[in-house]
Amino acid sequence: MKEARLHFRHPPVVEVVCGVQFSGAEGWGTPHFGRFWQQIESEYPRFEDQTPLPPLRLEGPVSPEPQFLPMPPLRRVFFIQPSGNFLMQLQQNRLLHNWRKTDDHDEYPRYERAYERFVSAWSKFENFLATVPLPPAHADVFELTYINHITREGAKFPRDVWEFLAFYEDTPRAVTAKDSSAMAMQFNWPLPSEMGTLTLDLKHGVRPNDESDVLLIELSARGKAKESPGYMKEWFDAAHLAIVNTFDDFTTKKAHALWEKYEA
Questions:
Q1: Which ranges in 27-185 belong to alpha helices (H)?
Q2: Strand runs (DSSP E) across 92-226, as ranges?
Q3: Which pick of 4, 28, 86, 120 has the fewest CB atoms within 10 Å?
């Protein structure tokens, strides 16, 4: 019998990122971004230049250390689908595929679809390297990130975070007995079977589109890649399960009712 899985009909997810950091592909340069875009332009007709991301590390603090490079790194390029919901990010040593919520009515397409699009993007990139030709890319690190924006009419954060967070009974108070004005937390756990690390970042902010208070919960898994057949899917499935179960344990039953939790 198939084991029931946890779902939310209306999750607060605003972005999902599947990614791979790779080595190899020696000789990659600025012209290759344009040549690669020519092959995917019908699916990703828009592009944006962005600052490159720092290298992922599997050990030590999550915050990146300063880098001192002999010359500026190559850009990172966004290749964007017409709706703006799906985009591919590519830089010299990293490929990511995102789903992002661009409108309040956008529905999260579920993990399976987000992962399939990432696999398709990685396959397109590998095929491109073979046809250029450039040396193949070798996956070094996998990553999966879920970003959640939690809001409620009339809620003020950080005062009301404990309506949504299950690991503490009430908002901590200072000797002034006034509401706190800022909060930030980070938790790190090992993934099962030594598959990597799961990080939870928690903070509050203001949504730019309506200036409402929002609680931001980011869950990010990363782990060492293996090129054995089937390991990529095995890793992403395990990372997704860890993220969903941690989010469930971390949040309250009241919040689960709001997001319509169910098992199927």
A1: 30-40, 111-131
A2: 94-100, 137-150, 184-190, 197-206, 213-224
A3: 4
Report, in angstroms and rounded to the nearest whole number, the Rg of the chain calculated over CA atoms.
20
Residue type, 141: V
3-state secondary structure of 77: strand
pTM of the model: 0.90
Secondary-structure percent of the chain, ordered helix, strand, coil, rounded to 5: 25, 35, 45
Q: Which two tokens stand for residue 116?
A: 């399939």
The distance of Cα 245 from the centroid of its chain, to the nearest Å, equals 16
d(CA 5, CA 205): 31
Q: How far apart are the first and last CA of the chain?
A: 12
Asked if residue 133 has a cis previous peptide bond (ω within 30° of 0), the answer is yes
Q: Which two tokens stand for residue 98?
A: 């995102």
> Phi, psi at residue 66, to the nearest 5°?
-60, 145
Length of the chain in terms of residues written: 264
Distance (Å, whole) CA 92 – CA 140: 13
Quote the CA–CA distance of 234 and 161 in Å, as a whole number: 34
Average pLDDT, the chain: 89
Domain borders along the chain are: 6-56+71-263
DSSP code for 194: G
